[in-house]
Design brief:
The protein has 84 residues and is mostly beta strands. It is built from one helix and five strands; from the N terminus they run ββαβββ. The longest helix has 11 residues, at 39-49. It starts with 6 loop residues before the first strand and ends with a strand.
Length: 84
């Protein structure tokens, strides 16, 4: 299902007991030159922005955005559209 947005806020942080902990956080903004971008393209670019290329995990839809939980990393990645 395509997502209608051009900019996304990316937050990569640690977890404690399975919940986002924010003891440290890496924030980035990713942009696309067109609307109706696929979930796969969004997650690929978001993971690349925080250095998670090739890392496997579980991606879930959460509201208008996505949550990626890498396997065996104790971290979590949030990707949410920026509404201007």
């Amino acid at each position: 299902m395509p997502v209608v947005s051009e900019k996304f806020a990316v937050e990569y942080t640690d977890t404690f007991s399975g919940e986002a902990n924010y003891a440290w956080v890496n924030r980035k903004t990713i942009e696309f030159s067109r609307e109706n971008v696929s979930q796969h393209a969004i997650m690929r670019k978001a993971k690349q922005a925080v250095g998670l290329n090739g890392v496997r995990g579980n991606t879930e839809r959460q509201g208008c955005g996505f949550v990626f939980t890498p396997y065996n990393h104790n971290t979590i990645l949030f990707v949410n559209p920026i509404i201007e």
